[in-house]
Amino acid sequence: MPRWVDTAAGEYAKRLPRELKLQWRDVPLAARSANSNAQQLREREAESLLKGVSPNDHCVALDGRGKPWTTEELAAQLESWMMQGQDLSLFIGGPDGLSEDCLAAAKQRWSLGPLTLPHPLVRVILAEQLYRAWTITIGHPYHRA
């Protein structure tokens, strides 16, 4: 990731409490060529992605066809996830999206909205929104909407 992504996402990550530590795991893109098939690329990337997920993780796929949550709804989701006591894995798709295997492994699908966002920006948005949601759960004044 570019330095600005690590700086911005890192700023929000360091504000979170120890029990909400963010860890990013980058999965290399499958090799692409002029004859690449998007479905096959998604499947190859899914193999790497799913290998890094524990069977006990609560998986959420970021998917444009998923449910868009308000910040307050995300805060309620965060509280629910924390009460489950499981690690949370958020799947961010590559340029071709997520495979059906990743979508099937996810217990939830979350849409960040109808816009197509670049992968680095999604990381920053996730870090900020998770921080914002956490501040709502503890009554911190960061979120003033």
UniProtKB/TrEMBL annotation:
The keyword Calcium does not apply. Keywords: Cytoplasm, Methyltransferase, rRNA processing, S-adenosyl-L-methionine, Transferase. InterPro entries: Alpha/beta_knot_MTases (IPR029028), RlmH-like (IPR003742), tRNA_m1G_MTases_N (IPR029026). S-adenosyl-L-methionine binds at residues 62, 93, 112-117. It is an enzyme of class 2 (transferase). It is found in: Cytoplasm. It comes from the Bacteria. Homodimer. Belongs to the RNA methyltransferase RlmH family. This is Ribosomal RNA large subunit methyltransferase H. The gene is rlmH.
